[in-house]
């Protein structure tokens, strides 16, 4: 097609103006007319389309088809931007139909992929995820085929509306724009696979997308950092700690590029600052989960059958450490890692602040704990109890969990007890201020955790007492006090399960079955641990223990499906139900020797 003549220059000018209206001016449109610039852009595109039809020259049919396809694409995007999905789909379909015979040509391939991307998004927004997947996978296949068969930087769609004499894009710029279009394909595919619960594939595509965004400098720092931090949680669920840490380190480094928004009285700027603080706190929360999961996974490896640290296993794992480090290093070379040369050093420096290897002793565990604790403080700076009750409590619960798992590594029982006391000190004030009417689930969580913490402290005090030649009154008083406090919170938890008329449910819901049974079992055991010289009181406590042990046995007889949830507790309860009556009989005989 001959491009000479004033009509072509005018058409190109209108096309450019339409793009400016759509991409730049539309951001300034008032709330009362949110699509004003988009509609103006649409009118200009329609005018160019009419001009193009009037000036058709069949001597260059492919060039004509491509130019018409560019206009159909822009109109399709315009209609979808203004929430007119059916019209948008029609234009995008016409675009792909015009390009179909030439889709592998360097004039057309970039535009075709972008049209497929937009159709994929459009169908996904209609909740037709499978249809969206088809379009996006088609775009992916076309990119791979083109790169294999040609590989030269293709023309950008905007180049089809350049007046004669205008400077074309460089190959470098063409390549950058083409790769950006393909990165969008991968980005949308990652979301589609996530929707389809293909989590492994979603993570793989997300990782590739993030890597490419860095490589081609096509990203917004805050958005990129949040996506990387979110991906870290996937790797965490797979216990891939090295990959999880790398994602988080990269997230922290890239987030720092966002900088601070200058202070201003402008409300929008204040909102932006608030959003930045929130995103920073969200990344901090991902770091907390990383530290907590690493410590908890190490505990599972190191604990014996009663939940204490196994020294033989500890020595065995330490002997394997060198080999493990070598394997990790080799694995790193194969892993898909982020970072261009300018940020690699910063990411590596961030990684060195916390290990990705399982801690095998208290010192190693403490180093990870301290990193997690620092991020707890950072997250709490934004998620304060006034305004973010649920988030704040979840962060404090994670802080408590960090202390709990660190205590596992501590050999000194007194110091371990102090760590659990720290947990009590942070959880009790939160519980006291909560209204269970509005926060029933969190209230139950705190009741159970407080009960469990007092229970652990009581067990530790008993263990300390067992090392003494004779229990002193102070230790006895402490054991009894901790036991009573544990019972109090377990009972509060069990009371929360009752109906409004205070009746305990005949059958427990699946989500509270194990906690309720464990609470009953622990209360039974706690009554057996209370130390008293009063034989009558001792008998009362034994009777109470028997009642709670019996509850577990009777419940599981009525509901056999419950057995799988509490096998160990049930076995011990049956044993105690068999033993306690004889013990109580002997105690009664002592109290009333003449009966």
UniProtKB/TrEMBL annotation:
Location comes to: Cytoplasm, Cytoskeleton
Give this protein's Gene Ontology molecular function annotations: kinesin binding; protein sequestering activity
Which Gene Ontology BP terms does the record give?
Answer: central nervous system projection neuron axonogenesis; microtubule cytoskeleton organization; mitochondrion transport along microtubule; neuron projection maintenance
Q: Which Pfam families match?
A: KBP_C
Q: Give the superkingdom in one word.
A: Eukaryota
Q: Output the Gene Ontology cellular-component terms.
A: cytoskeleton; mitochondrion
Q: Which UniProt keywords apply?
A: Cytoplasm, Cytoskeleton
UniProt family annotation: Belongs to the KIF-binding protein family.
State the function annotated in the UniProt record. Answer: Activator of KIF1B plus-end-directed microtubule motor activity. Required for organization of axonal microtubules, and axonal outgrowth and maintenance during peripheral and central nervous system development.
The protein's name in its UniProt record: KIF-binding protein
Originating species: Coturnix japonica
* Recorded name of the encoding gene: KIFBP
């Amino acid at each position: 097609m001959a491009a000479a003549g004033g009509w072509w220059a005018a058409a190109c000018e209108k096309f450019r103006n339409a793009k400016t209206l759509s991409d730049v001016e539309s951001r300034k449109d008032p709330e009362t007319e949110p699509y004003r610039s988009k509609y103006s852009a649409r009118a200009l595109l329609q005018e160019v389309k009419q001009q193009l039809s009037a000036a058709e020259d069949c001597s260059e049919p492919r060039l004509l088809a491509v130019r018409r396809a560019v206009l159909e694409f822009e109109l399709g995007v315009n209609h979808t931007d203004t929430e007119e999905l059916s019209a948008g789909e029609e234009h995008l379909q016409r675009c792909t139909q015009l390009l179909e015979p030439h889709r592998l040509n360097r004039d057309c391939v970039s535009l075709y992929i972008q049209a497929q991307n937009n159709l994929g998004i459009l169908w996904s927004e209609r909740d037709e995820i499978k249809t969206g997947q088809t379009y996006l996978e088609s775009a992916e296949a076309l990119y791979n085929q083109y790169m294999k068969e040609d590989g030269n930087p293709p023309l950008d769609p905007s180049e089809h509306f350049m007046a004669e004499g205008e400077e074309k894009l460089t190959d470098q710029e063409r390549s950058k724009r083409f790769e950006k279009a393909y990165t969008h394909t991968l980005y949308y595919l990652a979301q589609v696979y996530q929707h389809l619960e293909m989590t492994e594939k979603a993570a793989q595509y997300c990782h590739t997308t993030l890597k490419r965004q860095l490589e081609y400098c096509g990203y917004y720092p805050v958005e990129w950092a949040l996506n990387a931090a979110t991906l870290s949680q996937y790797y965490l669920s797979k216990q891939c700690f090295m990959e999880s840490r790398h994602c988080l380190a990269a997230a922290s480094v890239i987030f720092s590029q966002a900088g601070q928004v200058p202070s201003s009285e402008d409300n929008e700027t204040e909102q932006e600052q608030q959003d930045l603080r929130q995103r920073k706190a969200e990344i901090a929360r991902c770091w907390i989960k990383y530290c907590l999961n690493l410590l908890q996974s190490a505990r599972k490896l190191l604990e014996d059958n009663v939940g204490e640290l196994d020294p033989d296993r500890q020595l065995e794992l330490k002997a394997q450490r060198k080999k493990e480090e070598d394997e990790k290093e080799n694995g790193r070379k194969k892993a898909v890692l982020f970072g261009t040369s300018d940020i690699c050093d910063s990411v590596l420096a961030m990684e060195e602040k916390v290990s990705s290897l399982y801690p095998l002793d208290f010192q190693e565990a403490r180093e990870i704990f301290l990193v997690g604790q620092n991020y707890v403080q950072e997250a709490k700076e934004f998620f304060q109890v006034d305004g973010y009750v649920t988030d704040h409590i979840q962060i404090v619960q994670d802080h408590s969990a960090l202390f709990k798992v660190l205590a596992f590594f501590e050999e000194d029982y007194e110091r371990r007890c102090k760590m659990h006391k720290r947990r009590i000190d942070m959880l009790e004030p939160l519980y006291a201020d909560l209204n269970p009417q509005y926060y029933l689930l969190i209230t139950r969580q705190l009741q159970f955790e407080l009960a469990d913490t007092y229970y652990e402290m009581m067990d530790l005090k008993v263990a300390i007492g067992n090392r003494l030649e004779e229990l002193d009154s102070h230790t006895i008083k402490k054991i009894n006090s901790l036991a009573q406090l544990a019972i109090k919170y377990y009972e509060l938890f069990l009371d929360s399960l009752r109906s409004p008329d205070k009746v305990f449910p005949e059958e427990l819901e699946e989500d509270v079955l194990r906690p309720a049974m464990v609470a009953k079992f622990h209360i039974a055991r706690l009554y057996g641990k209370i130390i008293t010289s009063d034989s009558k009181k001792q008998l009362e406590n034994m009777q109470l223990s028997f009642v709670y042990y019996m509850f577990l046995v009777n419940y599981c007889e009525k509901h056999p499906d419950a057995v799988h949830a509490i096998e160990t507790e049930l076995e011990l309860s049956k044993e105690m139900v068999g033993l306690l009556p004889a013990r109580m009989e002997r105690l009664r005989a002592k109290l009333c020797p003449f009966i």
